[in-house]
Design goal:
Elements lengths: L12 H10 L11 H14 L4 E5 L2 H10 L6 E6 L3 H4 L4 H6 L3 E5 L8 H8 L10 E8 L10 H13 L3 E6 L2 H8 L3 H4 L7 E5 L9 E5 L8 H7 L8 H11 L3 H21 L5 E2 L7 E7 H8 L6 E2 L14 E7 L6 H10 L2
Parallel strand pairs: 2-3, 2-4, 4-5, 5-6
Antiparallel strand pairs: 1-7, 6-7, 8-9, 9-11, 10-11
Helix pairs in contact: 1-11, 2-11, 8-12, 12-14
Amino acid sequence: MDFASDNVYGVDAAIMEAMARANTGTAASYAGDEITARVEKQFNEVFEREVKVFLLTTGTAANCLALSTMVPPYGAIFCHGFAHISADECGAPEFFTGGAKLMGLDGVAGKITPKMVKDSLAGFIRAEHDPKPAAISITQSSELGTVYSLDEVQAFGELARAKNLRLHMDGARFANALVSLDCSPAEMTWQAGVDALSFGATKNGAMMVEAVVFFDDKLAVDFEHRRMRAGQLLSKNRFLAAQMEAYLSNDLWLNNARHANEMAARLAGGLSAASDIRLGVDCQANEVFAIMPRATHDVLAKSDAVFHPWLASGSDTDTVGNDEIMIRLVTSFQTTRDDVDAFVNLVG
């Protein structure tokens, strides 16, 4: 019963098989191979238009290199204070942008709003003494497993255009958000005003592949050089491409995400049925945040279940009492009903 993260599980069998197939014969190096070319066409089909796509190995690299095309060293990036770029990437966004400032906003349930960005912009009155507002970054789904609606993404797109800002989407769990909204990739991105997307696959069944997808071609100029300088251009790039090709084929990415979300919903339903447990936030994708008495937590901690206590901000979640604790549980494409039900039975 491992609910620590969707990173703890292995690689989808179809993706492993695709990598094995790529491990025969020879292929052009440095993204000049046929599989990479096919993947580029796949992304055009997925997003219903021509896009510029670059494969990378990590979500941190995808986020930071994407932002580096949008923001000058003296720029400002508006994001949630607990977004991955702000809390979990060791200053990499600042490093790759050459020093841009992250403006962390305190949004409810892991999400920010256009009004928060507007209110923050209103404080930029000191000309060159302030960083220059340059970009907004939203996480889909958020660090608390919540999902921005299409209307919410659209509102950010409109704000970005009105204020001459760029809009970036951290889509480490893009597929989970997509199946939650039951919409098209195009509707959730460029049609709503997103300029660049960090497209995640690793958390949803891949071994180690992410992508930066540009909907504005101007941002992709010289990105090959940025990728190379960051050490993200693999000589045997076909093994990244093989993962992504299998991931996007036969709806594997959507089916994996749908299963993970269904397991999270099952888990959330089972836990919230217990009289002494409540959800910190609504379960909308593949993460469950449950608030429980410390005594209940201690029982779970002594079991073979793996999960993490989670620091809760009052503005982010339902209030956590003095004798309570909130835990995070993450489901994946390999989470089983048996594991979910066994965990629920521990508190039943």
